[in-house]
Amino acid sequence: MKKLNNFIITIIVLVILMTMMTACSNSTEPTTNNTETKEPETEEFEIDETKADVTLKGPYIITTCGQSPGAVMMNMVAMQEGLTSVNDNALTAEALNTDEYKTLIVTTGTSMKGMGAAGTDVNAEIERCVKLINTAKEAGLTIVGAHIEGMARRTDSSDAASIDAVMELADVILIIEESDSDGFFTKYAEDNNKQLIMVENTLAISSVLK
Amino acid sequence: MTMLQHSLLVLVSIAVVFAIAKKQKLSTEISMLIATIAAILVHVILPQGEDPRSQLPFLEIIRHLAEGTVTYFDVCLVFLTATFFMTLYKESGGVAYIVRQIVKTFFRRRIICLLLLTFVMLVPGAITGSGATTVLTVGGLVGAVLTAMGITEDRRVALIFILAAMSAACPPINLWAMMAAAGANMPFVGFTIPLAFLSITGALFATFYLAGRGESVNLEETLSNLPKVSEGWSGVRVVLPFIVLIGLVMAGRIWPANFPVVGLPLIFMISAGSVLLVSPKRINVFNVAITTVTNLKGLVGIMIVVGILNQIMTLTGARGLISLAVVTLPIGVLFGTLWLILPVAEGVLQYAVAPLFGVPLIMLFNMLGYDPVIALSTWAVMLPVGDCLPPTAVVGRAAVMELDYKGNYYRGFVKTALVPMFFILALCTITMIFCNEFSAIIGG
Amino acid sequence: MKNMNIKFIKVLILFIVFCVIGISGFLFREHRTFKEPVVVSEHITTVKKLSDYSDVVKGTVNDCNVYIFDSGVEGGTMLMFGGAHPEEPATNLSAQVFTENLNVTQGKIIVINRINISASTNTRMGEAYPRFFHVDTPWGVKTWRYGDRAANPLDSWPDPEVYIHYPSGQNLAYVDIRNINRNWPGKADGLLTERTAYAVMRLIEAEGVDMTLDYHEAELEYPVENTIVTHEKGNEVAAMTSMLLTSQVFDVPIGMEFSPKALHGLSHREIGDYSDAASYLVEVAEPMLDRIRGITDEELLMSGKDRFVMKAGEHGLLYAPIDENGWPINQRVARHVETAKTIMQVNNMVRPEQTILFDGIPSYHEILENGIGAYYNDPSMANPNYVYYD
Known about the structure:
heterotrimer; A: alpha/beta; Rossmann fold; 6 helices; 6 strands; about 40% helix; B: mainly alpha; about 75% helix
């Protein structure tokens, strides 16, 4: 019995040491994007050109895919500019009055406060927004997929799911520089032939709203 | 010296000193205490290295040791009061009366009897969150019935352990899930179905695997072997203490806004008082109290020492290193090893594992898009399976003590329990891997 | 002979145990009874006790000081409080920067440095925390109690097997019945922290509070990090505050989160639901709270530097950046103070009828440059009428 006891304890120590060694090594495949804030590699982008070429026309209807507050921020910026803008985070295809608006802006990235029962159901959000976007497209509205809350909204799989779902259907992608710290959106826009608007920060979004 | 090397050396010192102390035939509790003191010495002696750190005055070391002793103070009180209640009940003859009645009533209906016993075993842990409480309250009673049903000693103690572990995992109270959910700011909502599915499935499998078949029993012979029942017991009298116990627990749940917070220790003491009221014979309460404390010396001792070990491992960075090691494992490796890591860690650190591994793992799984409620439920059912593993083996030891088991702890009891243990771990691992699909099925 | 040896060993062990009990008992008592001096700003209007608003905390350790700065000029009212979780020191330190320096010229600001004093009188068991933390000031070293997340069991015990939140009925971990940020909106006949939350709700009603700010810190593994969590009443203000600070002031962005409706007991949800006030909660990164941290000591608490947490960052497991510079206490307090100021300034624009004007509070860059110690006054040199104890 003593021998068996010692054997089990030896196994425990070995398991601990093995896991230690794994921790000591650098992971070659980081599981997610690192949230570290990096200096924006602005030289790769043609920000001024895009700013000069593209402006978005109101009135705007703004919603969020993932219940993050980006839509509220976008609405605040539009209102500060004196533009007509409505924010409805639960907007559905059925409730959308297509005659009143020229542009539908859907912000992406998911709310992170509260997990489990208090969390956001990203699949339900995507379903709602995809239906909404399709209805708006049929009515001739310009669809803007936005990501304006930086890398903090590009950390987990829910963020990725909302970005993928919305950007695929968007006519224009609107981002802030920090959201593209790793060049993801630039590459995405190039690969998918989407128009990209990149501004320095959320306050600067006003420069592309009309 | 880097912090990683420092903490690794502390960890190695714990393992080496513990092994040496065990070799010197010291008890597990004393060996762990000596290993903990060695850890703090190594921590103080090792040079500071590249990172600055604060001075650790001698008196603060003393304070850390003392603070560690009370980490599981509440749990120890529950152990003591629950055992006191059940020992009184046993002394009064209540257990003997119930066992006799069950054997008489269910003599020819083995399946119903087993289902009833499984239910009886699941209830105390489900409402208190403690597997040891299950063993200490109804373990002896159920063990006696199992004996009467012709179940061998090894299978009996193995079954009592597994059912106690599953009772701790069973909703509504699962302390591991609760503590980890609290650490991750998750409400304790949505856990009932996954926890119930995993723990009840595990309990039923264990029951029928270990006790489904047994030697045929001669009723008269069995009854004559059971302890004699004192005069004066009746069905009403015998259930009254349990009505008091369950009534006090449930009152707090049904009327949380109006019923005062009594706390489990006092609930058990009030229930013990009700035993004295209904008991047809006089009981020497003082002797029962002494017996209780004597029997629980080991269990309480190990909980105290584990508290100290946890505190010192945290102080020295050793605990953080273990936690870091686990969460930085690739997800595939995590799926393949958590079934081993979690029970082993439970055997070492007890409930401290919940915040230690549970919280970072919830964050990790949430980040990767796995349903955190289902995933946490699977870990919270895997963890108590480790309660028969060294060095603490709290529930395993309680089962051995309560059933007065004479066989070999590992080759007899643990070996017999291995199949149901692996079944539960496999079930949890599969559910963890397919947690999103499981969540969709149950509408979570 | 052998018996003699065993007896000697037993006596020796007993002696050691008594020594440990004596020494640690002394240290625990020293921690529990340590008083934190607060030299209030000369512009203070009055200092009340929480029990002035509700008897339910009278005579308890949680009958905290309520520092009121009333300009006498009509405007808005802000209540800010620190110390909800005393294991998060930037919270009470930030509140105290206001208490010791504030001058309100329009509207009213109410500050509570430690809203759950009981939780600051012991450290969290099993976490190996230091008992005190210290800040260098121009006049010497200032000391504060370091604490737990939940109230001291000596003040609130026993816990129920499961904590059922009042009035939502949501199930939470048993220990959360002592966690004030799971107790809102409180319960008059509840346990200590429930009663404390209840009394603060009465304060909010009595003083006509328009907005509340609850200071917090969070582990870097936790998704809600470096952010403002807001009740829906505060959406516009929080959004604009986040945009302004991220664009113009902070190196590391500050985000914004909606208060989830299905998570109960938290200040940002319940204060907003059960009063007229808009409720905000701010978070900043504190590596000391991460389970994966290395050596646990005051150095880590104050510098926010930790190799293990950095390693987790390399694996992409964190929601906040961290490098060799860590998250020093100056930066954490500076962010909180600046965020509080900006929330009030933005609120002035969004709701002019609730205007609050004030001065005396250092900017983000001033705190980084001078250190927080520069903003706490020397109690030994102060007018005793201005010295209070938390």
